[in-house]
Amino acid sequence: MKHRIIEGRLEYTSRKPSMEGKNRGFESFMFTHHGDGKVIMRAHCEIYEPDPMVMRDIVYAMDEHKQPMNLHVHLTVGDEFMGSGWMRFDGEHIECESFGPSIGRLSEKVRAELPMAGFGTHPIVSDGYMLSYQDWETTDKRLLNCYLPSPDHRGATPPQIAQVKIGALYLGREEVTVAAGTFQCRHFQFTDDPSIVPGTGGMAGEHPPYDVWITDDEDGIFVQGGVGGYMMTWYELVELRR
Predict the structure, then answer these.
(1) Does residue 165 contact residue 201 with C-beta atoms inside 8 Å?
(2) In 6-161, where does DSSP find H-type helix?
(3) What's the average model confidence in pLDDT over 77-84?
(4) What pairs with residue 94 in β-bridges?
(5) How far apart are CA 173 and CA 170, in angstroms?
(6) 17, 101, 139, 147 - which has most CB atoms within 10 Å?
(7) For residue 123, what are the contacts with CB-CB under 8 A and spacing of at least 6?
(8) Does the CA dihedral 88-222-80-53 come out positive or negative?
(9) Could you tell me whether strands 181-191 and 162-178 are parallel, antiparallel, or unpaired per DSSP bridges?
(10) Per residue in 3-53, pLDDT tens?
């Protein structure tokens, strides 16, 4: 079997005035790029601040056209089980099977609005990878139609189908140096502001601007990024193995 594996780790830090540079979690990830074009992303995320702590484990499979196949989620909040679920896309419908103490056993099926940019899975590397395979040759502004297992900004609710439309801006190429090395990158910004990208909405409250730098290649690896507003967070690639 011919495949490539990419592994890495991101550090989460705070940029709040009283917490500048303080560690607030981490994310370890693995991408398997199969010979037939399919991709599987695995990610383990831990968010320590703000309380309660969020721990998320994700396995997300995409087909050779980067369309979602299936998504597995296991979520712990405050060291207590919050929920687990499975989502599947068949080209027309999205179905979800999940369980959580607050929702019980849940089965859902909805007709998807197309075209779809992908499943929003909440790991930071997934945000960057989704941007990497969009067509930026014809525009510097896009409305991304996504389906998520949680509309919460930290993804800290039991898995259920949620539709979100988020704006994305392409801001150009830059060289970026982080702990993992120096990379040629493309700079993007997610926006939840309909005055910038009409049609955005669906998150549980307006999401602050979110800047993202990804490697300028087919792998679209998240290198650095940050969210402004009330969140004031920063994410940086500290380990990478290809």
Answers:
(1) yes
(2) 124-132
(3) 96
(4) 89, 110
(5) 9
(6) 147
(7) 27, 29, 41, 43, 45, 56, 58
(8) negative
(9) antiparallel
(10) 999 999 999 999 988 888 899 999 999 999 999 999 999 999 999 988 899
Q: Among 203, 202, 241, 209, which Cα is nearest to 225's? A: 209
- Tell me the pairing of strands 93-100 and 39-47: unpaired
User: Which residue carries 């502004």 as its tokens?
Assistant: 141
Domain covering 3-241: architecture? Beta Barrel (2.40)
pTM of the prediction?
Answer: 0.93
What phi and psi, each to the nearest 5 degrees, are found at residue 125? -65, -30
pLDDT value, residue 205:
53
Please, which residues bridge with residue 178 across strands?
A: 181
pLDDT tens profile 153-210: 888 999 999 999 999 999 999 999 999 999 999 999 999 888 888 888 765 557 788 9
Structure tokens at 219: 């792998």
Residue 148 CB partners (closer than 8 Å, separation 6+): 119, 120, 121, 122, 155, 162, 163, 164
Helix (H, G, I), strand (E, B) or coil at 196: coil
- 120/122 Cα distance (integer angstroms): 6
C-alpha 119/C-alpha 51 separation (Å) is 26
**What ranges do the domains of the chain cover?**
3-241
Count of residues making up the chain:
242
Contact predicate 6/221, CB 8 Å? yes
